[in-house]
Sequence to fold (201 residues):
Amino acid sequence: MGVAKYADAERPIAALLTLPNGISLVRLGCVPLLGWLLLGGEPMHAALLLGLLGATDWVDGYLARRLGQVSMVGKVLDPAADRALLGVALIGSLLTGYVPMWLGELMLARESLVSAGTVTLAFVRAPRVDVVWEGKAGTFALMVALPLFLVAHSAVSWSRTAGSLAWVATAVGLTMGWAAVAAYIPRALRSLGQAQIWRGR
Fold:
């Protein structure tokens, strides 16, 4: 995808009060509950919540396109919810030992790099870089992997199978995620070249 400017044809309030954005806000609001379940030693419950939130990741984007409610607010809110959910799930899984430390560091490095780039572009008022499909696919795969790691530490009969599937999903997620970073770099550089603050605007 190309580069989109931080502008909305709609009024700010109208752009915010839409069904797709409401769904993104609900997903974002579930972040504290997810953290509480993880740190409270409820891996199966946390896995169910994270799986549900991951499975509904596509709903807000689909409804925005279907209802003609695509907005700049939504384009920022949707990936923000993804980043927050994935970040809390990952950090919580690391603190509780559900995910190996070295694997968590690889995931966190990628998430931190993307988040830092997003904040930098916003700070210098550069045009926003749209999410690439590799990034969405990588995030989805990791959102599948993390619940499976949690299930692997539960008492269900298929916990070992869940662990094996978690590693497969992780391999896909990391490969796609770092491919997305490679795709973002030239787009981010072009966006920085158009930054308003650097032009004195």
